[in-house]
Structures are given as structure tokens and as C-alpha cells.
Amino acid sequence: MTPLPITIETLRKTYGEFTALDDVSLRILPGEFLTLLGPSGSGKTTLLMALAGFTRPDSGRIVIGDRDVTRLAPNKRDIGIVFQNYALFPHMSVRENVEYPLKIRKVPRREARDRAMAALERVKLGAFADRDIAALSGGQRQRVALARAIVYEPRIMLMDEPLSALDKNLREHMQFEIRRLHDDLGITTVYVTHDQREALTMSDRIAVMSAGRIQQIDAPQEIYHRPRSAFVAGFMGEANILAATDCRALDGRPMQGPHRVMVRAENFHLDRSACGPEGLSLGGRIAAIAFRGENWLIHLALASGQEVMLSIPSRQSEGCESLKPGQDITAHADANHVHFLAEEAA
Amino acid sequence: MTRIDPAVSATADLRRDLRRETAFFLSLSLPALVLVGLCAMLPILWILRQSFLTLRGTYTLSNWEKLLSSDLTWRAIWSTVELSAGTLVLCCILGLPLALALASAPQKLANRLLVLLMLPLWTSILVRTYGWLVLLRRDGLVNQGLQSIGLTDTPLALVYNFTGTLIGMVHFMLPLFVLPTYAALRDIDHNTIRASASMGASLPRTLVSVVLPLAAGGIRSGSMIVFIYTLGFFITPAILGGGQVNPIAIRIERTLSTFQNWGAASALGILLLLLVALAAALLVGVRHLLSRRGGHHA
Amino acid sequence: MLRNPLPSTLSLALLATVSLPTLVTAQTLTITAAGGDYGQALKEAMWSPAAQELGYDIREESQSDSLAALRMQVMSGTVTTDVIHLGSAEAAQAAALDLLEPLDTSIVDMDSLPEGARNAYCFPFDSYGTVMAWNTETYGENGPKTWAEFWDTKTFPGRRALRANAQDNLEIALLSDGVAPTEVYEVLSSETGLERAIARLEELKPDVAIWWTSGAQSAQILADGEVDLVVTWNGRAAAAKEQGPADYSFKGSIIGTDCLAVPAGAQNVEAAMKLIAGMTTAEREAKLTDYILYGPLNKGAYEPGLIPEDRLPLLATAPQNAGTSVYSDAAWWVENGEAAQIAFDEMINR
To answer: A278 falls in which pLDDT band (50, 70, 90)?
Structure first.
């Protein structure tokens, strides 16, 4: 089955005064793994539910393949959904859960059974087919939900924060498993999360959302290193947004205002020589310093009052052991890691 | 002087504390136990004894012999079961959609509608039953309405028969069926319904395969309340039945008022009690059977 | 005619505690009678003036189920009632259970009673008729005149309502079938009599829309037009006639009576008999009709001048009404009531 593209055109949804989707337009490529990333209330779940057909948009269009599905009922859209709370049927066994969509499609009994078992094997739950849902752990339930969503080979897969209820280790493991599943099946997938690391790990592209709009849509590296706005930068990990006037060039000359720059905590060095010829320097007083295993974390208070976060890798600790709060230091960053932010995105 | 091992003494003390605590909490239930014993068990025992007494107060089995050999008794039992089952079926047919609508309405609206639904429960059953009499009789509102829109030429016999009795009983029992059903429906995770839809299930299919099974507990409680409660109904068939509907409760009254026969009436009362117990046991048994089968997913 | 069926245990208990004998100089008697308007009428028309004349103090108990109260008192051996007011059928049942003292015929006047109404244990004092009533909108003034016509569903098509009780209905059924009023109980007592009456009722059953259970109901359904023909009590029929388009007739009515008796083992038997005699004089029974449409049993009450002319047509025992009537035979009912009622109930539920 060839994967389908999804086109979303000026989709709008308001709840009273609140605008959940503000004329969102988006093209999702066939077979793509696209993540909608954003804080709660940013509109990412509304967008997903509109794709699924559970939320009726006020205006705009959703096209899957070449079919306009904007007004199509959810059960006619041929989509698979994995819910945050799994939404398994507690009155059915594991296998019955997975067989359910096949029964609805009137797949013959024997074939349904075989396909359900195959889907369960794929998520490594073959041995649990006859268990009650209540007897499963959270991770196992998540896998049942996955098996149930893939067993009927839907054209589109939607996932609504499917891993948020799992503990950290399991979550990281499942991120890879879901991605592997996607690579095997090639289904166009839209994935919703508020966890930027999860988004980075899994996605072909990430759409960062806020206030009902897509702020930036790009490949993970692009989003991470070259955020187009302070919001995206801030949301994608420990980014420091600095006024150009607070910094100097590495050679000591003042920087050109009125730009603002983004430097990630891990891209600062205390050793000037670790940077190339171009870059910036930042002077300040240590407000706090802590050893965190893989790195040292330093809060640097600037003259302007802003606090900047530095993350120095342990293996090149650059003399951090001797630093004390109250000490004045200078931090440096290579020009490659200094990202000028567009002005309008304040 | 014996030396006491402090560890042993502490364990003994703790155990005594626990016993004391248990005894205290048990003693809290004592007033309720006494009340139930005096106000429920004693009268039942008294009625049981009465069912073995003649009018002159001597012991006899004749009340029971007559009762069990009489066609009227079996007819009364059948009529009782017929009424209860009919009420239950209608409550399901009317109550399930109502509960579904309530459960899918916004919470605020649902709460208001629930109050409306409960309203009949706060009205005297006598008043409501006579209300139905006024509505359903030959020149009542319902018949007038039906005739004025031309659905029927002659008034329909809506009351003083089985139909009228059933209407009155359903009206009384409907809230008691809807409440537990609604509560169970409200508890269903909406995502399971969405999941079912996303997998291609139509709304009716989702209702049958997902919603109703998940609300089964509430529906069962509601059914149990309706069926068992209605087994003892008296006022509604007495007023709306027109003498044509004669369940056990009516026979008890008839036996008392026309024969002054406390023994026979008591035996009927015990029979009704047994019927209630049997119905409860059957319903509970069915549930066990279902849940066991469900548990194995055979 | 104490028709409220369920005895209240509470009032039994009260009865036991309240009516402990007290010491007073004047003769004190306890009378147990119906409550409500009926009880008030009995007091004002009958026992209050009688007691005054005899110099008795009267303590009044009102009872919704006198027979149950009587049984309780006699069986427990604490008889606190001296005079008790019963329906004739109840009285016959009580007599069969040895709950009543025989009437002292040297004190009470048996000769004042019509022959069909006499009884050795309970002295009848008023009466009601079970009559036919009809909707005058359906039939105009030409209602059925006999029970045979009441059964005639071709000439008188319409919905009928009968009481859900064998009593009176069996008698009526036989009358409709051509049995003479004087032979009703003879036929009923014959081997096939009960069968014949039940079969006759079953013939009418398809046209019986309602088997009523309370007098109020019987009047209501007639006044509402819910049914066209009703067998009901004359008091209720009179009420329906006032309320709605209805009329009724005493033709072939079945007369039931209420009576006064002395419980077995009562403390003041002689005084109680005197009170009964004093209550049932022609004047006092006539006076009762001022309050309630129950016809006197004392023949003297119908002597000219005691009862207003316009009241006479409303009373079951009035000379112009009683000619075609049958006095309900309480003794027959005590003996055969249960079998008759069962046969009747089976017929209804068939």
C-alpha cells in the first residue's frame, strides 16, 4: 500500500474567545513521521483530533491523498490512532482488542486471528494474547494499543502523546520501537508530544506549535540548531537568548546591535582556545555551580541581571573544580554555534 | 519476680489494641443490627408463623396446601413476573437511549436534566398514579390528543388494564433504571469510543460492542432494582389495573379484605419474599456466570 | 360496611393500652365503631342520645377493621369493647368463630326487623343497596330496569364495571338469569348454583372494562364516562348522580346491613344489650338518614313523618325500593364465601 500525503489548508478552530487553530496550513509527505510539538494549549492535540475527525474545524480543508476528508466521519477515514491512555477495551482480551478492527472490516475469522497474532508478535506480545487487559503493565498496554492500530494497515497513523504515561527508560525504548515500526510499515504518521527530546529522537520533521500556529516546521537538526524564533529556541532545550549588546566578539570588539542571538548551554567554553576565530564572549559572575555527572552546570549572572546557563562536559572540565560562586569568569562560544534570531519573532 | 521480655509484651499489647479497635468498630454497627433485627427480621418471622395458623390460632398446613394447589396463585405469580419483566424491558428500551443522551450531554446540562428526571421520585406515587389515570382515561388528554390528530376514532383503552399498569410502573421505575446506567456510561473513557470509531466502527456498532458492554455493570444494577422492586408493586396495579391485573401484592390485599384470612395472606407474603429472593439469586447468578465466562475469554 | 381492608397494627396496640378499665361511678361502656363521617353520624344520631337516656358514659374507639380488633380482644382474653359495629358478613364470620355473645331477645326487639335481616348475634340497624347505575348520556332516562337488561349487551351496548368481589355479584348474576329474588340463596346453595352464577358473570366479562375495588372508584368511573354501566352501592350511585350524567335504580338491589354486637366475654353484657336497644329505636334510625343514605332496618322508621318524603327514594330499605330486593345472606357467605370468591377470582383471571 502506498503511503498517502496529508494536506491541511488554513484550518481554523475556535472555542468561544479561544483560538485553538489559527489558520494552520501544513503538508505532510507520504510516509513521513511528523511530530507536532508544543506546550499544552498550543493546538497540537486539536490539530490531531481534526485530522482524526473528532473535532470539526470552523473553516479550512483536510485532504488525505487526493480525498477531501474535512467533513468525513471518523470511521470512514481509515486512520489508526494510539491514545495517550491507550483506550483499550477492558472487556476484551488482548487478542480480542487487536481483532476488533478486523471484525469490523468483516475479515474472516481465521484470517483475523492470524493477523492479530502477527501484529502482537510484532510488538512482542504474542505470549499475552489471551490475557485480560487489566493484567498488563503500562508498557504492555501501550504495545497492545500499537498492535491494534497497525493490524488493519490504516493509511494514516495518529499518535497522541502515546508514551507520556510510561517511565523514562521504557519511554526511550518505545521511542525507538515506534520509529522502527514506522520504518517497517511506511505509514504516514502524525505524532503529538510536548517532549522535545522525544520529538528529536523520532521525527523526520517537527512542527513546533504555539498559540494555534505552526511556528516552525523543519528537520530535527534544523529546528534544534537554527530555531527561527525565540519561542522555538526556548522550547527546544536549554537555549540562552542574549541581547547582542550584552556580548562582545571574541576579539573583544562590541557586537553589532540590535540583534538577539541564541547560544545553547552546551556550546559555551571557558577555554577561549576551544573556539575558532569567530564567535562571542560573555562576562559574568558565577551565581551557582553544580556537578551533574556528564557535565558541570553553571549559572552565570550578567551585568544586565540576566542569568545564562552554561553546560561544560565533564571530560573537558576546563578547571571547573576550582570555581566558586561569586567568581567572575568569561565564557566563549564559536560562531558556528551562535544563531542570530529573526527580529519579529520576539 | 518474673522478668517480662519487653518485645513480647509490646507484641501482645499491639495485638490487644488491634482487637479492641476491631471490637469498637463492630460495636458501631450494633444499633443498625438491632434495628434491622427488630424491624425487619421479627415481622418476617411473625408473618412466617402466621402462615401456619388457622383463623382460630391453631397450627395448620392448610394455608400452604390451598395456596400451592390453587390456580390463582400461579396466575398471580405469572402476572407478577409479567409486570416486572415488562417494566424492565420498557425501562431498557426507554432508559438506555435516555442515559446515553444524558451521558453525552455537557455536564452542566446533564446535571439539570438529571434533576428533572429525579422530579417524579420526589412526588408521591399515589399522586402520580392518579395523574396517569387522568391522562390515560377515555376522555383523558392522551386520548383527546390522539383523536384530535386523527390517529384513532374511538378512545383507546389505555388504562384499567395491563397497558395502563405498565405505563405507571415504567414511569415510576425509569429514573431508578437510568441513574445507575447513566453513572456507568459517564465513567466510560471517551477515548475507547473514539478508538472504536477510528478503527472503522459505525456508531451503532460502537454502542453494541463497546459502550453497552462497558456500562453493563450499571445496566445490571438498574435492571436488578427495577425487576425486584416491581415484584412487590401494589398501588399502581390497584389503581391503574382496573381489576384486570392481579399480581401477588393485589392477591394479598384481596385475601385480607375479603376473607380476613391472615394465614393465607401471610403465606402469600412469604411466597412473594421467596420470589424476590429467587429473582435476586438468579440475577446475581447470571452475573457470576457472565463474568466468569468473560474472565476466561474462551 | 367497614371496607378499609388493612387493619392497622398500631391502632390495635393503642387500643390495648388506651382502653384499660377505669373506675367511675356511672356505668361506662366502650363502643367500637367506624371512624370518619359515618362514625360521627352514628354518634350524633344514635348512641349519644341513647346513652344520655340510659345514663351511661361512653368511651369511643374507632376501628378500620373491627373484626380484626374483635379477634384480637377475644383471643387475648382482654375484652375492652362492649358494643361493636360490624358488617353483617363480618358479624357472621365472628359468630362462627364464637367471638360474639348471643343477642338477648328480651332486651332487643327482633320483631322490629324485616324477616330476611334477622340474626341471632348481631342486631342490624342500617342498610345499603348494591344497585345498577348508568350514564344518562349513553342511555338517556331509559336505563336498564332489570338485571337481565343489564346483561343485555345488544340493547344496552357499553362498557360495564363490577366490583372485584363475588359478594352481591353472584346474587345479581342469578337474578339476571331469571331466578326469583326469594330463591337466590336456594339456587346458590344447590350443587350447580355457584357454577351457574359464575358462568353468567363470565358471559358478561367481555363487556366488563373494570373490576372496581373501592366505592369511590366506582362512582368516579361512572361520572368520568369511563364506563357506561356500573354495579355499585346506593350511596355512591347517589353521589355519581349529583356529580355527572348518571342515574341509578333500586330494582333488584342486594341489601347489605351493618349491625351491632357484643363481644364474647364483654364486661357489661346486659348494659351493652340495653345500649343496642336504645340505639336502634325507630326515631334514632330515622335520624341517621339525615346524615347518611343508609336505610333503617327498624320498620317503624318508615312510619309517616319520621323520614322526610324526598329522602325516602334514596334509601335501600324504603318500602317503595325494597320490593324486588334480596337481603344478602351473611350466613351463606360465611359458609361459602371463600369457595365463591376463589371461583370468582379464577373467572376474572381466566
So the answer is: confident
Please give the angle made by the CA atoms of B90, B91 and B96, to the nearest 5 degrees. Answer: 115
pLDDT of residue B225: 93
C313 burial class (0-12, 13-18, 19+ CB within 10 angstroms)?
Answer: exposed
288-347 in chain C: CB under 8 A from chain B? 337-338, 341-342, 345-346
Work out the average pLDDT over C224-228.
90
pLDDT digits (tens, 9 = 90+) for C116-133: 788 999 999 999 999 999
The CB density around residue C5, as the number of other CB atoms within 10 Å, is 17
What's the rounded Cα separation, in Å, for the pair B164 and A4? Answer: 60
User: pLDDT tier at A1 (50, 70, 90 boundaries)?
Assistant: low
pLDDT tens-digit readout, A304-316: 888 888 888 888 7
User: Domain range spanning residue C311?
Assistant: 27-127+257-323
B–C CB contacts, 8 A cutoff, strictly below: 67
What whole-number distance in Å separates Cα of residue C292 and Cα of residue C309? 15
Give residue A72's pLDDT.
Answer: 93
Closest in C90, C337, C349 to B72, CB measured: C349
Q: C102 preceded by cis ω (within 30°)?
A: no
pTM listed for this prediction: 0.78
Residue with cell 334510625: C285
Is the interface score ipTM higher than 0.85? no
Tell me which DSSP letter residue B155 carries. Answer: P
**Cβ contact, residue pair B189, A85, below 8 Å:** yes
Residues C220 and C338 in one domain: yes
In this structure, are C38 and C89 located in the same domain?
Answer: yes
- CB of C262 closer than 8 Å to CB of C82: yes
Residue C18 has pLDDT above 80, yes or no: no
- Taking residue B153's Cβ as centre, other Cβ atoms within 10 Å add up to 7
Q: Are both C211 and C285 inside the same structural domain? A: no
A90–B contact, CB cutoff 8 A: yes
By CB atoms closer than 10 A (0-12, 13-18, 19+), residue B147 is middle
Mean pLDDT of B146-161: 89
Q: What is the CATH number of the domain that holds C116?
A: 3.40.190.10
Contact call for residues C85 and C57 (beta carbons, < 8 A): no
Q: Is C163 in a helix, a strand, or coil?
A: strand
β-strand partners of A19: A14
pLDDT of C17 higher than 60: no
Our CA angle for C132, C135, C139, nearest 5°, is: 100
The neighbour count for residue B189, using CB atoms within 10 Å, is 16
Grid coordinates given for C197: 352464577
Please give the mean pLDDT across all residues of chain C.
Answer: 89
Question: How close is the nearest chain B Cα to the Cα of A286, in Å?
Answer: 50
Cα–Cα distance for residue pair B59/B44, rounded to 1 Å: 17
Name beta bridge partners: A26: A8
CB atoms within 10 A of CB C165: 20
Q: Which CATH number fits domain B70-297: 3.40.50.720, 3.30.365.10, 1.10.10.10, 1.10.3720.10?
A: 1.10.3720.10
Answer yes or no: are the C-beta atoms of A74 and B197 closer than 8 Å. yes
B200 to A104: CB separation less than 8 angstroms, yes or no: yes
Residue B283 to residue B228: CA distance in whole angstroms: 10
Distance from CA of A109 to the nearest CA of B (A): 15
The 10s digit of each residue's pLDDT in A208-221 is 999 999 999 999 99
User: For residue A258, what pLDDT band results from cuts at 50, 70 and 90?
Assistant: low
Query: What is the structure's pLDDT at B3?
Result: 61
Give the SS3 label for residue C257: strand
Instruction: For residues A311 and A238, give the distance between their C-alpha atoms in angstroms, rounded to a whole number.
Output: 9
Cβ <8 Å between C224 and B139? yes
CA dihedral C313, C314, C316, C320 (to 10 degrees): 0
